[in-house]
Amino acid sequence: MGVSKTSKATIFLGFFCLNLFQSVLGRFVVEKNSLRVVSPDDIKGTYDSAIGNFGIPQYGGSLPGTVVYPRENRKGCRNFDDSGTSFKSKSGAMPTFVLVDRGDCFFALKVWNAQNAGAAAVLVADNVDERLITMDSPEADGSSAKYIENITIPSALIEKSFAEKLKKAVSAGEMVNVNLDWREAVPHPDDRVEYELWTSSNDECGFKCDMLMKYVKDFKGAAQILEKGGYTQFTPHYITWYCPRAFTVSKQCKSQCINHGRYCAPDPEQDFSTGYEGKDVVVENLRQLCVFKVANETKKPWVWWDYVTDFQIRCPMKEKKYNKECADGVIKSLGLDSRKIEKCMGDPNADEDNPVLKEEQDAQVGKGTRGDVTILPTLVVNNRQYRGKLEKGAVLKAICAGFEETTEPAVCLSDDLETNECLDNNGGCWQDKASNITACKDTFRGRVCECPVVDGVQFKGDGYSTCTASGRGRCKLNNGGCWHDTQDGHTYSACVDNEEGKCSCPPGFKGDGVKSCEDIDECKEKKACQCSECSCKNTWGSFECSCSGDLLYIRDHDTCISKRAREVKSAWAAVWAILIGLGMAGGGAYLVYKYRLRSYMDSEIRAIMAQYMPLDSQNEVPNHVNEEHA
């Protein structure tokens, strides 16, 4: 029975992958996050879980939840709505983590079905005793591509022994509370993040190529901001394989490899008879590596993002423009030195190593805490492989988690990175629904419960159960959380606008000042109008006192006096005021008169004395009579 050319391409691709695993003395590292059981006490502790390579892990943050093990559809391969099962958490309850068993369908399908039923996260229980593996998305076809790209919740694979403990506790009616923690999934040693993207220029590999191209376009702006600001150091990488020496002269190796079988890539369409060949992809990958090297030498490494994005748009395989001529046009438009790029690429037909591609093959081997790069595309942040959907917000969150706390750049604090945990039950934080004020704040590290500052007024409290406005101006915000009421056109408030921030019932009321202030009946409690002639009438927040006959009520003395006595008293008061005024005016006039009289007498005496004797202040008068008789 014959084998089709397409099947031969697939077999050859599989041989490449087998060759990679057998020839590289590296290892595949499963990226893990921490899963901490809070209750019940008998299984309390921290366990490892393997991060799923789809969905959106909350890098830098954590997610609490309650574990549910469904009674039906325990492998999650069918739609939960068919059995009327819902995992959506009720108001005030913690998010739901659905535990499903491994087997019978793709990991991603299990997570998709649970997400549609309202799950906040999915834990997949392994069905064999083995080391944890990475749950990867399947090679997407028409049916699976749609749900894979729409998975937004995190997922993790847990060991069989641990899963059995969870199942036993749930079956016994225990409330199993757990916390998925990604805060240490990415190292964050300092104020700069180093990250790599293992990619390919191939744009005909289906869903994953489409996802990769969309990610590069969407992430370009953020990547360039981070790079220009010196916050990150980015390096692109490209996976290549080599052809075994015994097959270097075969048609397959010649069409898929350059440099005599040293550097190869799979056929883009997985069909040797049509379209582009694997060696075309290798050459363009090499060109993109050299674009980065040349741009980096000019201190503008971010130009790589421009080239790759423009090449995808201007030179797609579908339009038969995936070639050197189109690439040269992109290079020219970006002002790059094409001669330096050609020199960097070398001769793809030479029977010798290419330094650039040889370096890439060596870099594929895992070093330190980073395992081998075997999944394409792969993002590596601070030498730790990223797991999850390759999407702008999710990746940026992972990169931002790599900064030492308090050193994150402004782009990490944008609305794009909000986790939206506050949308679900207000994140378990304090909330004043009447004023639409909440202590819940979404950040890329997860939600935090912190009492807010609103219109310059600081709220104080634990952020979870209480937040109270404090300081001046607090009464403008929902009356400072204090009691207030309006009746008959009069408004009373228990809010006191001072630094203490206490609620105190106003005069005429009694109560706690927060929930209630009751009107005091001064008449009934005999706090006013106690004179014998007084009659008392209680009003809301106050009272009225009146006197019988022509008597007038004096509130300060709580007594009644006759109107005539009050008039006489007022008249005598006016008389005394006039007399006192006249007395003060006379005294003032006397003092003025005495001062002026004394000044006049002093001036007269000085004039008389000046006629008989010279004063010290006068010049001596010359004696002309004596001069004539001399």
Automatic annotation (TrEMBL):
EGF-like domain: residues covered: 503-517
* Residues in the signal sequence: 1-26
| GO CC annotations on file | clathrin-coated vesicle membrane; Golgi membrane
**CDD domains per record:** EGF_CA, PA_VSR
Species source reads Anisodus tanguticus
Q: Spell out where the chain crosses the membrane.
A: 571-593
Gene3D superfamilies listed in its UniProt record: 3.50.30.30, Laminin
Q: Where in the cell is it found?
A: Cytoplasmic vesicle, Clathrin-coated vesicle membrane; Golgi apparatus membrane; Prevacuolar compartment membrane
How is the protein disposed in the membrane? Single-pass type I membrane protein
Q: List the PANTHER family hit by this protein, alphabetically.
A: PROTEASE-ASSOCIATED DOMAIN-CONTAINING PROTEIN, PROTEASE-ASSOCIATED DOMAIN-CONTAINING PROTEIN 1
Determine if Cell inner membrane is one of this entry's keywords.
Answer: no
Q: Which Pfam families match?
A: cEGF, PA, VSR_TRX
As one GO molecular function, the record gives: calcium ion binding
Q: Name one GO biological process term.
A: protein targeting to vacuole
Record bears the keyword Signal: yes
Q: Which family does it belong to?
A: Belongs to the VSR (BP-80) family.
Q: Which UniProt keywords apply?
A: Calcium, Cytoplasmic vesicle, Disulfide bond, EGF-like domain, Glycoprotein, Golgi apparatus, Membrane, Protein transport, Repeat, Signal, Transmembrane, Transmembrane helix, Transport
The record, for InterPro entries, names: cEGF (IPR026823), EGF (IPR000742), EGF-like_Ca-bd_dom (IPR001881), EGF_Ca-bd_CS (IPR018097), PA_dom_sf (IPR046450), PA_domain (IPR003137), VSR_TRX (IPR056858)
SMART domains linked to this entry = EGF_CA
What is the protein's name according to its record?
EGF-like domain-containing protein
